[in-house]
């Protein structure tokens, strides 16, 4: 099973994302929460292959008030807390232009993606679906390879270089 968590406080956007994912007709389980505290609770209980994370969310500290950086709060908690199951992929999503570049830098630092949500466009949907399909297929192939391989994969990180000069710089 491929598990996706949608963390967003906009019911309409959650519905749009959920319908786009369901159109894929893949074995995907979708959960959603609308605030930081509940997201942390789910992330402590369950492993998610993929998270779609709104940037502006009700903050844990501000008791329900929308924080312009609530999504960053979750990113930091995912990174810092050992009790949280680290997801395979995270995509940030926001409909707001204010502080977009600042938030994008925070996502970039962790090598995650931030995309713009626009009701009138399908670009955001195409990006999310493309990434979900890639992650789903990668997981399926990984699991299949482990079933047929006598040796289990024992690689945590692979570094590929195109030419020996690049490799020598890494050493």
Plain-language structure description:
44% of the residues lie in helices and 18% in strands. It is α/β, with parallel strands linked by helices. Helix 1 links the parallel strand 1 and strand 2 (28-33). The termini are far apart. 23% of the residues are buried.
Q: Mind describing the biggest β-sheet?
A: 5 strands, parallel
Strand runs, count: 7
Oligomerization category of the chains in this entry: single chain
| Secondary-structure class | alpha/beta
| Arithmetic mean pLDDT | 89
Low-confidence stretches: none
Q: Which strand order spans the largest sheet, edge to edge or round the barrel?
A: 2-1-3-6-7
Q: Radius of gyration over alpha carbons?
A: 18 Å
Q: What's the helical proportion of residues?
A: 40-55%
Large-scale geometry:
globular
The portion of residues forming beta strands comes to 15-25%
Q: What characteristics describe this protein?
A:
two-stranded antiparallel sheet; 5-stranded parallel β-sheet; alpha/beta; 6 helices; 7 strands; 44% helix; 18% strand; 171 residues
Summarize the helices and strands and which ones pair or pack.
Blueprint: E1 2-7, H1 11-22, E2 28-33, H2 36-45, E3 50-54, E4 57-58, E5 66-67, H3 70-80, E6 89-94, H4 100-109, E7 113-116, H5 123-148, H6 164-170
Parallel strand pairs: 1-2, 1-3, 3-6, 6-7
Antiparallel strand pairs: 4-5
Helix pairs in contact: 2-3
